[in-house]
Every structure is written in C-alpha cells, then in structure tokens.
Amino acid sequence: MISEWIFYIILYLLAAVFTAFFAYCLYVHHIHQKYDHIPGPPRDNFLLGHSPSLTKALYSDDSLIYDLFLQWAEKYGPVYRINTLHYVTIVVYCPEATKTIMMSPKYTKDPFVYRRVFNLFGKRFLGYGLITAVDHDIWYRQRRIMDPAFSSSYLRSLISTFDEMSERLMDKLEEIANNKTPAVMHDLVNCVTLDVICKVAFGVDLNFLTQKDSPFQNAVELCLKGMTFDVRDPLFRIIPKNWKLIQQVREATELLRKTGEKWIQNRKTAVKNGEDVPKDILTQILKSAEEQNVTSTEDFEQMLDNFVTFFMAGQETTANQLSFAIMELGRNPEIYKRAKAEVDEVLGTKREISNEDLGKLTYLSQVLKETLRLYPTAPGTNRWLHEDMIINGIKIPGGCSVMFNSFVSQRLEKFFKDPLKFDPKRFDENAPKPYYTYYPFALGPRTCIGQVFSQMEAKVVLAKLLQRFEFSLVPGQSFDIKDTGTLRPKSGVICNIKQCS
C-alpha cells in the first residue's frame, strides 16, 4: 500500500515537472515570436538561446566576449537581439537611441543584471551602491550625499595627494631602474591607485608599493574575479571544482566590508570626540549624511556598499587605463615623443604638479581619452526598456534589457575612422566630437560620479612618469586584453625603465 502511494506521488511529481517544463517552453516560444523580427545571430539552441556562444567566448583565451558583440554588430547592424532562456537583450549602438535612453532617468538600470551583484556568492557585495542601485529614489538620495565629495572645488584640493602618491611610484621606479630589472607597470600603478583611494577617500595610508601579498589588495582582486564568474555564468557556483574559489571570494567580500565598517566607525568616533579628521571623501559623506539625518542600519549598510564600490570601480579602472596608456605610448614612438615634449614644456624640472599645470597638458588629455576609446575599462551598461520603442526603424517591444556597449561603438569604422589605430588627434579641440558613440563613463544622470577624480589622478601619474623616466616595452609580450569584469592588459605591460638624464 505504501509503495503504491509512493509510486503515485512520484508519478504526480513527474507530471507536474513535465507540465511546468512544457509551460516554460511555451513561454520561451512566445518570447521568440515577440522579438524574432529583430535582427540577430541564429540561436545555438531553442531553450538556451545564444548562451553556448556567449559561454564559449567568456572562457576563451584567444578573444573577448566583446569581440563577439563587435562581430555581431558589424554583421547585424545597429540593433540586434541576444536570447538567453526567456531573457532578451537588445544590443544598441544607434546614437539617437543611445541619447534618448541613457540621458533619461525614466529608463532605469536593468534589475536582472545589477541585482546579481547585490550579493556575491551569498555575501552582500555592492548592495545598493551608486553603481548598482536600480531604484531611482535610492540612487538619487545617495548621489545627493556623495556629490559634495566630488565637487570641482574639493577635487582641486586633492592634487597634492595625487602628487604625493605618484612620487612613491617614482621612487619605486628609480629603484627598479637602478637595478636594471623590468617593471610590470600594471602591478605598480594598481598599487598607486589603491593607495590614492585609501588616502583620499578614507584617510588611511597603506603604501601598497612596500607590501607583498597584501590581504586587502588580494581581496579586491578576488572579488573582481568572482564577480565576473557569478554575473556571467549562472552555473559556476554549482560546479564542485569552483567551490574553493567561491569560498575564497566569500571571505574576501567579508574582509572588504569589515574593513569598511572599521574605518567608518573609527571616523565617526573621531568626529564625535572632536578630534581633527582629514577633509577627505569619508568626512564629506558623513557630514552630508548627518545633515540629511541618515542614521538607520540600512543607511550604514549602503555606506559599506559604496565603500566596496569605490575600491572595485575607482581603483581598478584607473589602473587599467594607465596601463593601456603606457602600453600604447610604448608602441607608438611619435605619440610618446609628443606627449613627453608637452610634459617637459609644462613641468620642466618641477616636482609638484598644480591644477594649472594639468589644464595645460592638453595632448596628454587626448592620449588618455583615446586610451579609453580603444580600451574602455568598464565597457558596457544596461537599461530596462519598460515601454515599446522604435529604434532605427525597428519596433522593440517593452519588457526587455537594452545593452549599450562602448567597446562596440568605439571600435566601429562608421563612427571612428581606422578604429584600431591609436590616434589621440581624434580628441583635438578642433576635431569633430563623437555624437553619443563615446561614453567610457556612461551618459546621463547615471554617469560615473568619479570620472573627473579618475582623470586627474591618471594625468598626474602619467605626467610624472613621462617627466622622470624613459620607458620601452619588453619585446615579445602580448598586447591582448584580459577581461576580469573590467578590461586590463593581459601581459601587465612589462617595461624597461631608465631615468631621464
């Protein structure tokens, strides 16, 4: 009798599973019918859609997933479709649609994409930080708190800190030059940008250039690696061979948030006790938060969200941009000579760089902008299309994600002549300005709050490097791009360094 009941239960469960699966397949078929009038590559599979091609590109050592997006853009035009199960992404590089959607606050960030990094393998990670907050009210409230910490007047006061941290790199490079050993530039500038964030944002001086195997630095690296896998490969966490890495990433996430909690609480205590505190970004944030009566536990968690966000976005992306700029200067001797001549003319033998000096380094600005065109370190963003829209003559039904990929738009011949050529003259003041096709820091209300901060820092570091040292790329290294959630040089950019005479 009992075995008969078990048989019927199993039979009903199987029937329920089959019915649910059949219903889901019908829903996927409905989605296909709804969006299949939009151009796009043939699906690899009815149910998985383009997932096999995307997964293959994600784990390829020979190419980037963004190369695949670029190939599809060149073949299928300015609007094309990607299917993953029942989920549809419309990739767009039409300038008018880019302007309409990205410049308007009514098109929110795609919740499916950005809520995936709220947690990282079960540990709160970026949460409701400035990058990931989907709800406009939550984002806007945080942005108002953060804005004073990124005002132009305050950023101008940071030039001395950028200068000080850059000097540490110069001392390290002098030591390397004297020892006549190659320098892995990405590792070195990564230490500097991490030092800058710690000092400028939180008043903590860790001097990573003197540390080996720093737990904090390793935690940032592990979280970046884990974020890439967790966001792009839904099956990553269920494969046993990945469990060790997943545990390491969880511990790294916890370390970052505990460190943030400690630094924030220390600052709060210092302020409460009337101690002198640095006029850094953390002080500005706490001051603004107090004025707006931001005191709840969730508000504190959001501070930690932004603590982690600053380290993930503000440090890594600037280091990668500097690494690519150094790589391209090493590959293009004429551009190198012109950039160095401008630095020598503006700075001479001065050791301290002023805001006025930065304003005069116009060609160096062009080099950095062209670096971000060819190598956008954070290459894409998604918006949620909640209503039907006509894009480039094609009706796009609402209820889907729209992807804007700067890697694609900034490497297309129709927008940038000879797009793979590194040419800073594209950004000369007399050159035509790109129309909604160049957006390394996104566009509109959700543009990166730290872009001015980042470019000031990058310009100071690069100017000092050109002023004090001659460098050349070590022959035989790869110039490929590595994708770790952001884009960085695969080789790390290995240079021979020599002090200027």
What does this structure look like?
The chain is α+β, with helices and mostly antiparallel strands and 501 residues long. It has a single domain, classed as Cytochrome P450 (Cytochrome p450, Orthogonal Bundle), CATH 1.10.630.10. It contains 18 helices and 13 strands. The strands form five sheets. The chain has a four-stranded mixed β-sheet, with helices on both faces. Strand 11 and strand 12 (487-489) form a beta hairpin. Helix 13 packs parallel to helix 18 and helix 14 packs across helix 18 (451-468). The termini are far apart. It is a single-pass membrane protein. It is an enzyme of class 1 (oxidoreductase). Belongs to the cytochrome P450 family.
Quick summary of this structure?
The chain is of the alpha+beta class. It contains 18 helices and 13 strands. The relative contact order is 0.14.
Q: Biggest sheet, strands in spatial order?
A: 1-2-9-6
Number of strands: 13
- CATH H-level superfamily title: Cytochrome P450
Specify the helix fraction band.
40-55%
CATH topology: Cytochrome p450
Kindly report how far apart the N and C termini lie: 95 Å
Q: Helix- and strand-based class? A: alpha+beta
What radius of gyration results from the CA coordinates? 25 Å
Write down the overall mean pLDDT. Answer: 88
Which second-level CATH architecture applies? Answer: Orthogonal Bundle
Count of alpha and pi helical runs: 18
Largest sheet, if any? 4 strands, mixed
The dominant shape is globular
Measured by DSSP, the beta-strand proportion falls in 5-15%
Tell me the name of the CATH class: Mainly Alpha
Number of domains: 1
Low-confidence stretches: none
